[in-house]
Design goal:
single chain, 149 residues, alpha+beta, five-stranded mixed sheet, 4 helices
């Protein structure tokens, strides 16, 4: 009597493991993220009726011109209402990627209504912002905690 051969499943061809070609560039590090000034232009900030003595358009133009001249050290963008509206105009100074790595956190500046406030905000941003430089002394009096209002 002959013993039948055991049945085997058909061979499954697995794809060859993929190897990276020699032409793949090395992983590029993330692009540097500069210190960013987020300028509130919501319900109260930038409102000429609420703050008629402030040149809101001129302020934003000045911040943008300074960012353009900074060579990428800091950037400016606008946002809808950031709150706290009772302390308008609000500018949030966000740390750069490096500043964040050194412990910097976003800083909320309230009552940014005059040239002196803008001077201090720009000085801080040009120095690196949160995590890399301390804010000018006068600006520390304008820092607000949005959770407390």
């Amino acid at each position: 009597m002959t013993v039948p051969e055991p049945r085997t499943a058909p061979a499954v061809l697995l794809p060859e493991p993929r190897t990276a070609p020699d032409t793949v560039p090395p992983t590029t590090p993330p692009a540097p993220r500069p210190c960013t000034l987020v300028v509130c232009r919501g319900c109260c900030c930038g409102d000429p009726v609420k703050h008629p003595g402030t040149d809101h358009v001129g302020q934003l133009a000045r911040l943008r011109a300074a960012a353009d001249a900074s060579g990428g050290r800091f950037a400016v963008r606008t946002s809808d209402c950031l709150g706290p509206c009772g302390q308008a105009n609000i500018v949030v100074v966000q740390p750069s990627r490096t500043g964040r790595a050194h412990g910097g956190r976003p800083a909320w500046v309230g009552f940014a209504l005059d040239d002196a406030s803008l001077d201090d905000i720009l000085t801080w941003a040009e120095a690196g912002g949160p995590g890399l430089a301390d804010p000018p002394d006068a600006l520390t009096l304008q820092l607000v905690d949005p959770r407390q209002v």
